[in-house]
Amino acid sequence: IMDGWVSVYANSFAPGVEMRRQILVDAEIPCVILNRQDSSYSGVGFASIEVQLLVPKDFQEQAQTLLQL
Question: What is the pLDDT of residues 38-55, one digit of tens each?
């Protein structure tokens, strides 16, 4: 994980992660999507892909509050 960034949401359903990213973008919270596929499970399908939504540590509380709505 990138230094100083924390995961506020993770799911294997990428469109759901993208929807949450847009909520943070609209609130002007810096965020990135990290899509890490475990190579040991390659070819198994979507179950092996975990997509994470990361924000800088300073924005963690604000982001988590927004995403609970």
Answer: 555 555 555 557 899 999
Nearest residue to 68 (alpha-carbon basis) of 5, 16, 8: 8
**Do 68 and 28 form a contact (C-beta atoms < 8 A)?**
no
Task: Identify residue 18 by its one-letter amino acid code.
Answer: E
- Residue 34, amino acid: L
Secondary structure (3-state) at 37: strand
Residue 23 in this model has a pLDDT that exceeds 90: yes
pTM higher than 0.90, yes or no? no
**Neighbouring C-beta atoms of residue 44, cutoff 10 Å:** 11
* Residue 32: both structure tokens together: 């990135």
